Amino acid sequence: MKEQLSRLKPYQPGKQVDEVRREYGLDRIEKLASNENPFGSSPGAKQAIEKGLTELMIYPDGHAADLRGKVSRFLNVRPDCLIFGNGSDEILHMVSRAFIEPGTNSIMADPTFSQYKRNVIIEGGEAREVPLDSEGNHDLERMLSLIDDRTRVIWICNPNNPTGRSIDRETFISFMERVPKNIVVVSDEAYSEYVTSENYPNTIDFIDRFPNLIATHTFSKIYGLAGLRIGYGVAHSVLISELEHVRDPFNVSRLSQAAAAAALDDQNFVRECAERNAEGKKQYYDFCKETGIHYFPTDTNFILMEIGDSGEDVFQYMVRNGYIIRSGSALGCPEYVRITIGTKEQNAAIIKLLKDYVSCKQPS
Q1: What would the pLDDT profile of 46-61 be if each residue is shown by its tens digit?
Q2: Which of 219, 256, 304, 312 is least surrounded by Cβ atoms within 10 Å, i.e. has the fewest?
Q3: pLDDT of residue 362
Q4: For the modification N6-(pyridoxal phosphate)lysine, which residues carry it (predicted)?
């Protein structure tokens, strides 16, 4: 085993429904821990899967030609500016695999999506972490100050997981203008479809201006295809060709490609999910303002809140009551909990439980 792997802990996903049901003896469990879409998937995606069941014996198209064409037209980019992966996680892995090696370093926020650091360490690189500012934003100036001649990749999670905060267009452009062109910048935009700000950067517009930039997207969140694992990266064709060297053949299944293509066609479903998410976000904002609970305004389908002194205590309380949320102890912010914004009814039920928890914790 590589020496550096001894410093890693396996990735900790949120608890699964069956696991909690067995452990706590509960009949009814609601899972709002992994930022999955509570409104399901597009009917068109389900139909595409059913249609594809007759061809399971055939290898998938390694070039993802049909899906590539649809995404190319949807984004108005050249087909050779796209790369597809087994979830956007695989694209992130490709970047580290292609550019990180022993003696190099990579810069990222803290806390942020944990896979950046894991991938860098696996490849033998140094992970340089920069604390977020007090409002949960990337400290881009500090990140720039850590660049040296061994820096290979900078990771930007926009919006950031777990704080839900996003970087605006002007700030992002200013940052990119100061990053040396030999350093790859990854803009992880898994939650971009939930952003409502008109000043959010459409990084796809910048790939010719900044050929060292790659934006990653997923079908796991608003498109509701987390169980199929499919995502893509958008970058200058030269950068894409470099990543193709480390992409495994047939890495995206036939069913995943078909479902993603159909899901992309159903933008009415996407808009409806975004609207319902905004309504659910307001439920949590109102609750936090009413109770004085600290939270980070979010541009995603989750919210990070500080309830009491221990996020783990809140997590255990919620699980005992049939709701799986995410303890901040697994996210680098142990005082907090992260809750996926659910249906109106799910949100109301969780808020009621949180109100009960807060009232019990208040001194009499």
Answers
A1: 999 999 999 999 999 9
A2: 312
A3: 58
A4: 221
CA distance 112 to 131: 9
3-state helix, strand, coil in the chain (%, to 5): 45, 15, 40
Which residue's structure tokens are 């061809």? 55
Q: What angle do CA 118, 141, 90 make, to 5 degrees?
A: 25
Amino acid at 91: I
Hunting for tokens 């992970």 — which residue is that? 127
Q: Are 261 and 67 in contact (CB under 8 A)?
A: yes
What is the DSSP annotation of 161-194?
TTT-----HHHHHHHHHHS-TTSEEEEE-TTGGG
Name the one residue in this structure whose structure tokens are 């009551």: 321
Q: What's the distance, Cα to Cα, between the start and end of the chain in Å?
A: 55
Are 55 and 254 contacting, i.e. CB atoms less than 8 angstroms apart?
yes
- Would you say how long the chain is, in residues? 364
Beta bridge partners of 231: 85, 218
Cα–Cα dist 163/303, whole Å: 7
Structure tokens at 190: 């898994």
How much of the chain, in percent, has pLDDT values that exceed 90? Answer: 90
In whole angstroms, give the CA distance from residue 116 to residue 187: 11
Lookup: tokens for 123? 């490849």
313 within 8 A of 302, measured Cβ to Cβ: no
pLDDT, one tens digit per residue, over 219-257 is 999 999 999 999 999 999 999 999 999 999 999 999 999
The pLDDT assigned to 364 comes to: 44
